[in-house]
Design goal:
2 copies of one chain form a homodimer.
Chain A: H1 2-33, H2 47-50, H3 67-77, H4 90-93, H5 140-149, H6 158-166, H7 169-179, H8 192-203, H9 212-217, H10 226-238, E1 254-256, H11 273-276, E2 284-286, H12 308-320, H13 326-337
Antiparallel strand pairs in A: 1-2
Helix pairs in contact in A: 3-8, 5-8, 10-13, 12-13
Main location (chains A, B): periplasm
Subcellular location (chains A, B): Periplasm
InterPro entries (chains A, B): Cyt_c-like_dom, Cyt_c-like_dom_sf, Cytochrome_c_Peroxidase/MauG, Di-haem_cyt_c_peroxidsae, MauG/Cytc_peroxidase
Chain lengths: ~375, ~375
């Protein structure tokens, strides 16, 4: 027994020694490269609490998801049979490979129809106060139903989309596992409400934490450079921060495009007015998120520029009535690039095959 | 020192005991569920070697890949900027979510042009003796260049596609890491040859091992049912096996569509004749792979049926001059469904952003 105890101690000791070696190697590496812990740099005492007052808040990581629902939502996000043609998916316009957007002036839809407005990114879209540029959908769930039935987008309708899922036994099983059986009929009846709920659940996971800027907010001093820090200071001083703040760095208010000077590049998109029919809501849009902004050109609802520096200058001119120096613009752009976070790591889903009762795709 | 040795022995003994417990739990689980090892069922003595003579060969798993090249190829496979519109990717028509095909009669391309022929699956395509239905590309690398420059497909051209990659520093770095610097200029010059080479390298990894049928071939008796086995016997007896054999269960010969009876459903697609201009190659096509066939409706180069049973009957009628009973057809279909293997597990790539010198997408 004594020998047993002794050998246990030896085992533990060996583990301790090995771990100490690993740790010291890691620290040595860090010191050598001057990087500090991970992307962030070493944390300095007190810095973290000081930055809790900053108007931009870091994205917190949440693991409290309904995994089965998120997995189903992911399948639906990549499901071409939700479109009339059997070819267009949510991901077609909100491509997770390219910042959650399609990087086109306006999206391509059914029969190559071109949409009327630039597609916003799906990344971090849960931080928006409402969805679409004009806020006509109150949340992601309500948004998800729109494109499926929009003749310029996926070109289908809710009845057809649901009937296709209903014809595929795997979907019937997954929906009933998550949403239960139909109360009235005791049957497995998929509803559009469930479809959009699952898509929204997946989309809510599409956040991009650990940006250099968030790491700085969290107290890792070296995760942004001096220039980037100066850019952030300018971003606050010039007034950009008034609209672009919070977790999403935007997305939490509606603002008129053209506060300081009427916006003359696009005068036919009426924005929030389409929802409220209130004259003062003409040219009012939801303030877009600035997270991952370097990945989602072209910019603005009308995609009027592909260049982030030009976008900053347009904002300053039309919203703040300011003209920035080249140095100021480039510093703000440098700051904006620190808002790019970890892109969602998604395993491409495998979808179940159609059956003899599945409606055929219609490319016309 | 003796104590040191002794404690080592104790440590090893503890590991052995723990592993034995884990193993016995696993075996108990298997016995309880009656599943045996994995999908395959328990192996019976001698069965494996007996099945080495079967005309269909299992897909062997290969880990001998150039990982960096495969990763680059994956990015390119999902890269919309290889198309003129900046919207269509290899995956648009060879969707890894749906059996490596688009499950459309013919593919949708640039400006919603509809292609002339059904898109074959990319899965297991390395087992084809050549690529395209008419075999006009000798391998996957040669194939990959086609759709990029086809005005009905991705609508771009090789110069434009390469110049776009060249304008993105991350791509320049990845290509030079894999292919080295340009010999003549000592510079990092991306070529279309490298682009198609990397795409082909990724596509070569897209195999689907571990189908129930392959497990049976490998000696796991219970991995196919009696009915499925009878279906396989019929598949051989009726003569399907003459063309559909080997690792791909097809893909290794050209055959006339209409050997026993002229194929009257499509008389304008000339097939191999377009390549050879030899009169006897009219209506001759590469025999398609039957692996994962249940996932890739509609069937045949002309997509003349969506129903696997009907496809089996058409083949028997036009190729073999046979009329199957319903029971025979359904047994063969049951066998064909055992050819569905593990679908490739792919982490959706994150693509680098365009720069100010990247050519803009052109949707027209």
């Amino acid at each position: 027994m004594n020998t047993g105890k002794f050998s246990t101690i030896i085992c533990l000791l060996a583990f301790f020694v090995i771990n100490t070696i690993i740790l010291s190697v890691t620290i040595a590496d860090e010191q050598q490269s001057g990087v500090g812990y991970g992307r962030g740099g070493r944390m300095s005492g007190g810095a973290s609490s000081a930055r809790e007052d900053e108007p931009i808040k870091p994205i917190s990581i949440n693991f409290d998801y309904n995994r089965a629902k998120v997995e189903l939502g992911k399948k639906l996000f990549f499901e071409p049979r939700l479109s009339k043609s059997g070819w267009i998916t949510c991901n077609s316009c909100h491509n997770l490979a390219t910042g959650g957007a399609d990087n086109l002036p306006t999206s391509i839809g059914h029969k190559w129809f071109l949409g009327p407005i630039n597609s916003p990114t799906v990344l971090n879209s849960k931080f928006n106060l409402a969805q679409f540029w004009d806020g006509r959908a109150k949340d992601l769930k309500e948004q998800a139903g729109g494109p499926i039935a929009n003749p310029l987008e996926m070109g289908s309708n809710h009845e057809l989309a649901v009937s296709i899922l209903q014809s595929i036994p795997e979907y019937v099983q997954w929906f009933s596992e998550i949403y239960g059986l139909d109360e009235m009929y005791g049957d497995e009846i998929i509803t559009i409400d469930q479809v959009t709920d699952a898509i929204a659940a997946f989309e809510e996971t599409l956040v991009t934490p650990n940006s250099n800027f968030d790491n700085w907010l969290n107290g890792y001093d070296n995760s942004i450079s001096e220039i980037e820090k100066e850019g952030y200071d300018l971003f606050k001083e010039k007034g950009c921060i008034v609209c672009h703040n919070g977790v999403g760095v935007g997305g939490n208010s509606y603002q008129k495009f053209g506060i300081a000077k009427p916006y003359d590049k696009d005068t036919h998109t009426l924005g929030r007015y389409n929802v409220t029919k209130d004259e003062k809501d003409k040219y009012v849009f939801k303030v877009p998120l600035l997270r991952n902004i370097e990945l989602t050109a072209p910019y603005f609802h009308d995609a009027s520029t592909w260049d982030l520096a030009e976008a900053v200058n347009i904002m300053n001119e039309y919203q703040l009535g300011l003209k920035l120096t080249d140095s100021e613009t480039s510093k703000i752009v440098a700051f904006l690039r620190t808002l790019t976070g970890d892109q969602p790591s998604v395993i491409f889903p495998i979808l179940p095959p159609s059956t003899s009762t599945t409606a055929k795709p219609n490319r016309n």
